[in-house]
Amino acid sequence: MAGQYDAIVIGAGHNGLAAARVLAGRGRSVLVLEKNNYVGGMAGTRQVFAGCRNEVGASVLFPIARELLDFFAFEKHGAEFIELPVMAINLAGAGQRPLMFYTSRARQLWHLLRHHGPAALAGFARLARFIAYPASVMDRFRPDSAPRSLEELLREAPDEAHREQLRLAFTGSAMDVIDRFFPDRIKHHTFRSLLAFAAIQSTYKGPYTPGSALCLIYTFAQSGDGGLMRRVKGGMGSLSEALARSITAAGGEIRLSATVDHVLMEHGRATGVVMKGGDEIRARLVLSNLDRPATFQRLVGESHLDADIAASVARAEHRGAWVHMLFRLDGLPSYGGEWAWLNRDPHNRFGGAMVASPEELQRSFETCDAGELPAWFPVAFQIPSVMDPSLAPPGQHIASAYGFCFPCKAPKSERGKLRDQAAERVIDIISGYMPDFRTRIIDKAVFSSDHFASMHGATEGDFTHGLIHPENMLAARAMVPGSAHRTPIDGLYLCGSACHPGPGVTFLPGYNCGLEADRALSGT
To answer: Cα–Cα distance between 384 and 517 in angstroms, integer?
Structure first.
C-alpha cells in the first residue's frame, strides 16, 4: 500500500532516531515525530538550570557494539567522547575501602590487589568468567538478532553444567550468584554491596528476590568496545543531536513539538498517524519508540486489540521505584573524614554509587514494596562537570543522583510528599561522604517516575520499558515469533527499549528495527 512516507517513527528518543537513521541511509523516506522540543527523550540533554546542560535520564554511555559505532559515526556528525580515567567510585559505608573502576586495566588490577587483596581479585575474575556464558547467549550486544527463549537456550547448551549455569543466571537471585564468589559478609562487604546494587537498579526486586540475578548478568555483560564507560561532551543528548543531523543529511525529516494523537488504523493495518490537531500523515510502516502500553493502549486503542495482544501488553511489569535529582552547585564538593584522601584526584569526584549491605538493600526494597519510605536508599551519583566544564557556568558544577527503592506503589496522592522526603534522605547520604555537598546547592530539581511518565510517555515512568525480570526478557521481549520488532498489527513495529535486547543506551533496538523494517519495505 502506497504511503506519503515509507516510515513514520513516533518518538525521537535515541532508539527512534537510530531506526530512522538506518532507514534514511538506505534511501527510505522517513519522518520522525517528537512531542517535546528536543531530541533524545530519556537520553536527551536540556537546560533545567540557567546556563547549564542537564540530563533528565541517562548520563553515562555504556558499551556499544562496534558495528553500531562504525555505522552511526557519531563523531563525524559533531559528537565528542570523553574518556573517564575513573569510571566509577563505589562507597560502601564507614570503615570500608572504596571500590574503584578505572579505564586502565593495569591500574584496575593494582587497585584490586592493593586495596582489596588477591582473594577479592580472584573472586572478581571468577565472577567475570561465570557471567561470560549467559551474557553471550543473551545477545545483548549482537546486532540484528532475534531473541530466543530460556527453553531454547537450555536445549542449545552444550552440557548439564552450562544448563545449570543458565538456570541460575536467569531465574536465581543475585545473592545466589554473589555468594558463590564473595561469601564472606565482612571481608567481601564492599563487593557484595556493589554487586547487589547492580542487580536491582533496573528491577523491582531485592538482591535476595528470585530473578534478580538476571539484571546482574545484564549489567556486567561485555561488548566489543571493552565495556568501558564514557561521557559525551555536552551531555548524553549530544549523541541524539548528532544522530538527528545525520538523519537530515541523509534526507530524513524530524519534526519537534509534534504530538501524535493516535495511530491511523484501516482494515486492521497501521497506515499512518493522526496528529493532535487532526492532520493525517500516511506511511507504509509505523515504528513506535514508546513502550507497549503507551503504544497499544494509548496510540492504537483497545478497540483494535484482540485478547492475545492485550495479554502480551499486560504481561510486562513496569515500575519506577526511584527519585531522580539534579543540582547546580557553587563549587566542587569535597570528600571528608576517612574519605578525604580521595580529593587528591579530582576524577574521584566524577561519580559512582553509595551502597550498603545486601541485607540492608533487601530491607529497603521490602519497605518500599509495602508503600513506605525506607530508612536508607542506595544512591547513584554523578558530578559530570568534573569531566566536562561546558555543562555549567564558570566556577559552578552540576550534579545528579538517583535514589532507588522509592515507594512507587504508594497512593498517588502521597507520592509528592514521599518524593520530597526521599530527596532529603538522598542529599543526607551524599553529604555523609561529602560534608559540604548540601551547603553548595544553589538549585535543585526532583523528579519521580510520575514526571518521567508525563515528560517521556513512559508507562509508570519506567525507563526500562519493561523491567529486567526473567519474565520480561529474551523471547518475552518480542511479540511475533522470529522477529524482534514486528507486532501482531500489520504495518506496526516497535523500535524502543521494549524490544530485544532491552534497555540501556546501546542503540541496538532502534538499529535492529531499522534493518528489519527496511527488509519489510523491500518485501524480503
So the answer is: 37
Of 138, 200, 199, 194, residue with least CA distance to 502: 138
Confidence at 60, pLDDT banded by 50, 70, 90: confident
Q: In 3-state terms, what secondary structure has residue 115?
A: helix
Is 478 found in the same domain as 435?
no
Single out the residue in 436, 457, 478 at which a domain terminates. Answer: 457
Rounded (10°) CA dihedral 147, 151, 153, 158: -170
Residue 273: pLDDT over 90:
yes
Return the pLDDT at 228. Answer: 73
- Alpha-carbon distance 260 to 257, whole Å? 10
Which residue among 457, 474, 497 closes a domain?
457
Q: Is residue 220 part of a domain?
A: no
Average pLDDT taken over every residue of the chain: 94
Task: Answer for the pair 374, 363: CB distance below 8 angstroms, yes or no.
Answer: yes
What Rg do the C-alpha atoms of the chain give, in angstroms?
Answer: 22
How far is the CA of 172 from the CAs of 133, 168, 177, 281, in angstroms? Answer: 16, 5, 8, 47
Residues 25 and 38 in one domain: yes
Q: Is residue 163 exposed (0-12), middle (13-18) or buried (19+ Cβ within 10 Å)?
A: middle
Q: Is the dihedral of CA 399, 404, 409, 411 positive or negative?
A: negative
H or E segment and range at residue 253: strand 253-255
**Is the domain of 404 the same as that of 507?**
no
Residue 389 lies in a domain: yes
> In this structure, are 406 and 481 located in the same domain?
no
Structural domain that includes position 414: 319-457
User: If we measure between CA atoms, which residue out of 191, 153, 149, 156 comes closest to residue 174?
Assistant: 191
pLDDT digits (tens, 9 = 90+) for 497-509: 999 999 999 999 9
Domain count, the chain: 2
Residue with cell 545483548: 140
HSE at residue 154, side-chain half, CA atoms within 13 A, is 12
Whether omega before 501 lies within 30 degrees of 0, making that bond cis, reads: yes
Distance CA 169, CA 180 (A): 12
CATH of the domain at 396: 3.90.660
pLDDT at position 224 is: 53
- pLDDT at residue 1 in the model: 40
For residue 497, being part of any structural domain is answered with yes
How far, in Å, CA of 515 to CA of 494, rounded?
12
Residues 309, 353 share a domain: no
Contact between 251 and 234 (Cβ < 8 Å): no
pTM of the entire predicted model:
0.95
